From TrEMBL:
It comes from Umbelopsis ramanniana AG. Pfam families: Hydrolase_4 (PF12146). This is Serine aminopeptidase S33 domain-containing protein. GO terms for molecular function: palmitoyl-(protein) hydrolase activity. It comes from the Eukaryota. GO terms for cellular component: membrane. Residues 96-176 form the Serine aminopeptidase S33 domain.
Length: 274
């Protein structure tokens, strides 16, 4: 069952209930300037989402890759806080295939194609502005894939990873003890692998690792290991531990420290080649 339905266990676009095709109300936008957008992937999947502050003339542009559940409407409070901390920030939040109102079914290869299409679309639209990637949890694996790909790395100024895992295999090992058959089964039968630990060493741009000290899903040791691997190849990387945060509440539980780290990272790396 775990092998046959692994995509259903990894990708949860229907959680919470009514997450698929949820309409955004004016109240959800929290008085932000939000534009609905559509991106077409290389295999013709329609990806739908939003851009916050779409018409700003300058400043950083952040592509936000979400975790494995919900839709971009659920991230609007986060986007509100980010744009308050960094007023000249534009955020592109476009749902993967099978999430929100995007068409298709999620898979590792499919999400990789989505990430490519979203970056290409953002680069065409904001070619004169520095582009950053932000990945939370599953989205960190997506961001690491994109930033480690030499075809796309030149378009990326920096990467922020929040509570990201080493790989799906390592997550199975962390959740299930060695006395269960699941780590062994996953070793041979996973087709959704997301090997972040293999890719992070090939990321050439600066990376900020944001780790929740009380993460109840991804062990904080995963982030520490990713940072150590990255630091060997990219000296301009930094890790910040958020002492009060769990997996999903970093921007609320450690609000001031979170705002400081994100704003400082964007400002520092935006200016380097501006």
């Amino acid at each position: 069952m775990m092998v046959a339905f692994q995509s259903k266990l990894i990708y949860l676009p229907y959680v919470p209930l009514d997450s698929r095709h949820e309409e955004r109300t004016p109240e959800m936008s929290l008085e932000m300037d939000v534009e609905d957008v559509e991106v077409i992937s290389s295999d013709k999947k329609k990806l739908r989402g939003m851009v916050v502050n779409p018409t700003l003339p300058s400043g950083p542009v952040m592509i936000y890759f979400q975790g494995n559940a919900g839709n971009m409407n659920h991230r609007l409070p986060l986007f509100k806080q980010m744009t308050t901390a960094v007023p000249n920030l534009t955020i592109a939040g476009i749902c993967y295939r099978g999430f929100g109102s995007s068409l298709g079914r999620p898979s590792e290869r499919g999400l990789e194609k989505d990430a490519q299409a979203i970056l290409d679309w953002t680069y065409r639209k904001y070619s004169e502005r520095p582009i950053f990637l932000y990945g939370h949890s599953l989205g960190g694996g997506v961001a690491a894939y994109l930033a480690s790909n030499p075809v796309y790395s030149s378009k990326i100024r920096g990467v922020i990873l929040e509570n990201t895992y080493l790989s799906i295999q390592d997550m199975v090992t962390a959740i299930y003890t060695k006395w269960t058959p699941y780590p062994y089964i996953a070793k041979y039968f996973l087709w959704n692998r997301w090997p972040t630990k293999e890719r992070i060493g090939h990321v050439s741009c600066p990376v900020l690792f944001l780790s929740s000290a009380k993460d109840e899903i991804v062990p904080p040791e995963h982030m520490e290991t990713l940072y150590r691997i990255c630091k060997q190849h990219q000296s301009n990387s930094h890790i910040a531990s958020m002492p009060k945060s769990m997996h999903m509440d970093m921007y609320m539980a450690d609000r001031n420290l979170y705002n400081q780290q994100v704003a400082q990272f964007l400002s520092l790396n935006e200016q380097k080649s501006s």
